[in-house]
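Handoff note, outgoing to incoming analyst
You'll be picking up this chain. Sequence as last confirmed:
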Amino acid sequence: MPRDTAPTDATNPVFAYLIIFGTSLIGAAVLYGGLKSTGVFESEGMELGGAAAGFVIILLIAKRIFFSLQRQHLDNSQNNQAREIETLREELEKLRSGEQPELECPKGFELMVSRDFGLGFAKPRTWSQHPEQHIGMYMTPMTEDIIKTGFRGNITITMTLLDQVPGLPDDPDEITNDELKAPILSAMQVCGGTDVKWQPTYIANRRAMCAEFIYQPAPELDVVMEGAVVLDAPGRRLFIFALHDALPHSEQSQQLFRQLLSTVKFLS
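Most recent structure output, in case you need it:
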């Protein structure tokens, strides 16, 4: 939307002086040269007559008029600026109201919305975001216990288009629970996990497969992986929510992870 872009800076003092001086000089030349006018200018300790008097008088009048117009211009510019700021504020509120869906936000959590992926949820406020190439990777707060353990818990959220997953039926409703297990089974194979526990469920009215297993990325380090593969049939997408955290810290992290899942909402 186009807006007025009038300058708000005051006129350069040298330029203003040249304008006033030039107009006064021209006025004096016309009045006292061409029109043969006369005049006297008196001030404390000084008296001028003829063209010099006219020049000073016109100079003072021009100066007053110029700076009056400049002040009016600045006032108008400030008013325009204030109106533009107010307009931007209103537009921002409209964007915010349209962007933020109705999400539950438990105490200690903060809302996260991705319009690109059509997903909203609430994450633990103290978990910091990691700059990775997916919707989100959130890390547990760094503490001495975490440092001693040698593993920092994290929650990752990724999305894959169904058309990019080989072997799935064209109709999302025909995808079986066993097929939803595939991402978790792949993670188990990579991590070397064992004793997986499955639980079919629904997340935000979407069919999902939850799972949990334990793996050892290093000797004497047991890490719990709890995940949820969510089938977004209307959007033809597959979302994977995964928590990795080391024992004994995993119990609290799992509670936070399940709270996060309870807040998930699809925007499409």
